[in-house]
Design brief:
- The structure is a homodimer.
- By secondary structure, chain A is an alpha/beta fold.
- Chain A is built from five helices and four strands, in the order βαβαβαβαα.
- Chain A has one domain: 3-Layer(aba) Sandwich (Rossmann fold).
- A four-stranded parallel sheet of chain A has the order 2-1-3-4, sandwiched between helices.
- Chains A and B meet through helix 1, helix 3, strand 4, helix 4 and helix 5 of A and helix 1, helix 3, strand 4, helix 4 and helix 5 of B.
Chain lengths: 141, 141
């Protein structure tokens, strides 16, 4: 199975998980590691503990706030050590989390989930024009 | 000038703004309206107040967590009323906020900022491969 770890500057990752839960309900397969005022050493230690704990049994998708930031860089080091069990997604947003999160109970490969995360995250950032009207088929939540 | 409003299910938008401030510093041009347990009526009222206040003097980009959700739908109604002063971006992430937020003091059209938000948000969601190494030219923050 696959789990998701959300990492970010500050509590953005915690807020994102809360948004997910408001839409999709509770989950034990999505966890968070925020970079706090305690600094990089503290963040790195908590990240390492979560990663080691998860990859003992599962594959891991790490959703990061932004490429080049500390949360991304620290996650990237774990990816380099275990590229067969870990993949990294920069620029995390709620649509990719909803799309992948709600499929985590299904039996898919890590790379399948990875492609879904990248594609759904990108596609969700779409141009909203004046002509476009909300239709009855659109989801509301 | 242009301002940004971040709207989301729960405090995701507040966390996102905090992440922005950790990277780019303080700003008065980015505000938040979270959908809380108080419900849609309360959210709609606070959103309306912020939108009216901002468009009196400035243009407005509304970054939303996900298309089809309440924060998006309520924002879309404001966009329909004032499409010349308001644009909506669904699937908000930190890279688009950093890219646009740090340019808000420059004199650009609303549509120029809108294109930047969409493009930078999409481009940031990129495939990270094992071969890729962080170079000295990469930003670190």
């Amino acid at each position: 199975m696959t789990q998701i770890l959300l990492v970010s500057h500050g509590d953005f990752c915690i807020g994102l998980l809360n948004s997910y839960k408001m839409i999709a309900g509770e989950t034990k397969k999505i966890k968070t590691v925020p970079l706090t005022d305690e600094g990089i050493g503290d963040f790195s230690k908590r990240l390492k503990e979560e990663v080691i704990s998860i990859v003992q049994t599962d594959n891991l998708l790490i959703f990061c706030d932004i490429k080049g930031g500390t949360p991304f860089n620290e996650s990237f080091n774990h990816f380099l050590k275990q590229p067969d069990k870990i993949r990294i997604v920069p620029g995390m947003n709620l649509p990719m989390l909803v799309e992948v999160g709600m499929q985590l109970e299904t039996d898919q490969s890590l790379n399948s989930f990875y492609d879904t995360a990248l594609n759904s995250g990108k596609q969700a950032i779409e141009r909203i024009e004046y002509e476009e009207e909300t239709t009855e088929n659109d989801l509301e939540f």
